[in-house]
Write a structure and sequence with these properties.
Elements: E1 2-13, E2 17-21, E3 31-41, E4 46-50, E5 57-63, E6 67-79
Antiparallel strand pairs: 1-6, 2-5, 3-6, 4-5
Length: about 120
């Protein structure tokens, strides 16, 4: 399934500094980024940082002085997924879940496009 991804953010930097943004769509075995475009207005030097696993990409932007900037990201992403029927599994209270799965209930900024983590009972 193909998704069009779009975001636009505006920042007001009151001093020089560095922005580190996690804005790109993930590149995974089940998700292909067909095209993408990142625009920073006004133009500023930006560096793409790739995580060791290769999926997560960060963008480092150096701000040499206070400024207003607009960052626009758009991508076309092809996502491959499988549907599974879990209706045969019994429900469990959150209080009964092992600690090793509780992190799944936290917001996850690095999910592939379109993937949702279900909330517990």
């Amino acid at each position: 399934m193909k998704f069009n991804v779009f975001t636009q953010m505006q920042y007001e930097a009151r001093s020089e500094g560095t922005l580190v943004l996690n804005i790109h769509a993930l590149r995974t075995p089940n998700q292909l980024v067909l095209s993408e475009e990142l625009t920073i207005d006004p133009y500023l030097k930006a560096e793409e940082l790739i995580a060791i696993q290769g999926e997560s990409r960060l963008m480092r932007v150096e701000l040499t002085e206070p400024c207003s900037l607009k960052i626009t990201y758009r991508a076309l992403v092809d996502n491959c997924y499988e549907l599974h029927d879990f209706s045969h599994l019994p429900e469990a209270l959150v209080s009964q879940l092992p600690a090793t799965v509780l992190h799944l209930f936290e917001p996850e900024p690095l999910l592939p496009v379109g993937q949702v983590i279900p909330l517990g009972a």
